[in-house]
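Render this sequence as a predicted structure.
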Amino acid sequence: MSIETIADLIQAVRREAEAETFPIDEPVYRRAGRDPIDPILFGGSLEAPVAIVGRDLGKDEVAAGQPLIGAGGRLVRLGLLAAHGQRVEGPRGKDPLSLQGALAYALLTNTVPYKPPGNKAYAESVRRRFRPFLARLLANFWSGGHILTLGTEAFQWFEPYGRSDEFSGPGRTDARFDSAFSCRIPGASGVPRDVLVHPLPHPSPLNRRWYSRFPEMLAGRLTEILKGS
């Protein structure tokens, strides 16, 4: 089956998931009334200038059927709205579902479109299986040019598409948070897509080193990108 539409791409992800078992947090999907094999591939706008890539889904994302809607996702969405002059204060700012307006300003996705048991990172073998689909999403269906990555695993996902000296040099230090990495993502028919990857720490409340600084860091990245667009 050729992949000509985004619906084709989602069905191709599902077929890959059906082809060979891998760990999925099935109880979370059952509680949400969702089929664990149905991928939650992306949310937001395929026409947005910015894509935001996380590691994988959490329970809140499964329940809502869209990426980045838990505690960390709320910070991301608040930052997107603020960057476009929309500030959300009070109780509404604590409810991720009230922040749906942020979906107009970014494509939200993950390296694997499923939730792992216990929120442990998927093995590289699983990420490898689903890599072609995320690459296809970014190279052929999304029209933007800037990618913000959340956390180490999401940033390292792009290493095969960038310069090895950059990823093994500043990409292994905190300097990456002040750098942008040129990457060339392979697309359909051998036509690559050039993007700039801007790493950020993961916005989890458990990330004590960076959590309090994340909103400021996100704001800086978005300001830089939007000024240049």
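Summary. The two ends are 36 Å apart (CA to CA). The chain has a mean pLDDT of 94.
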